[in-house]
Amino acid sequence: MSRQQRDALDAMFRSSPRSETRPTPEKQRNGFAGAVTRPAPEGVITRRTVLGGRPALELEPAEVSGRGRLLYLHGGGYVVGSPDTHAGLVGELARRAGLRAISVDYRLAPEHPFPAAVDDGLAAYRELLAAGTDARDLVMAGDSAGGGLSIATLLAAREAGLPQPAAVVVFSPWVDLTLAGGSIRSKEGADPIFTEADVRAYADLYVGGGDRAHPLASPVFADLTELPPLLVQVGANEVLLDDAVRLAGRAGADDIEVTLEVGPGLPHVFQHHYGHLDEADAALDRAARFFTAHLGARHPGADRLERAH
Questions:
Q1: Average of pLDDT values for 279-297?
Q2: Is 238 a catalytic residue?
């Protein structure tokens, strides 16, 4: 393990909220913001806006190539996080890909439980299309819960008869709220951020007594047919490893073009450590290339969907 990796992991240990008495959602949000927030990179302009009826943050790099747009859904267990906490990560991804990005402040649990976040994701996606963005010029991304929400949003868009975007990238996606993946337990000792109890607590706040296996809550159980090409990046040292692996397997079984990348020795959403961790920079570069390789292209699912409608 490199010194950069050790420094990043030490920082994550220090910010890990592993107390027996869990703080209120508001305290969790403040703590999360203090631990992970990084400003947008130099040269990336930010503007407040509204998309799909929700506050949003636009991020525009100095150098933009073409008409491509990136719709980003932030992580945080559906309970914490915001476009501000992820401005650095989203801005860095947008800068490397040469894309204008918009990050949505979707409603959070427990005040707004499932399916509020999915409704907001779909409303944002629908408005981008209605405003004239060609689906072939649109890509999506999300991390952790935002990764699962990105897939759920595209499932909801498919059911609404909307065209799919050119591609989707997810970092350490949380796609199984039933916590059935073996790594939830087997990787607990290696994960510097989460325990099984931490992840279960987020699921309790988001879904409560509802169906945790619902495809829009746990997309690993969904039929992913007709979704766009998918890139999944995950660290080997995280309890959500199996979520990512099983999502990629489900996509492959449903005839979706999918690429799975597992980073040895890396933690949850290691991409947050761009500029300090070589593996994070390399992963963001690969994600950017994945976007540019698919923007403007047609994929089989889009053609089938248009014929069906």
A1: 95
A2: yes
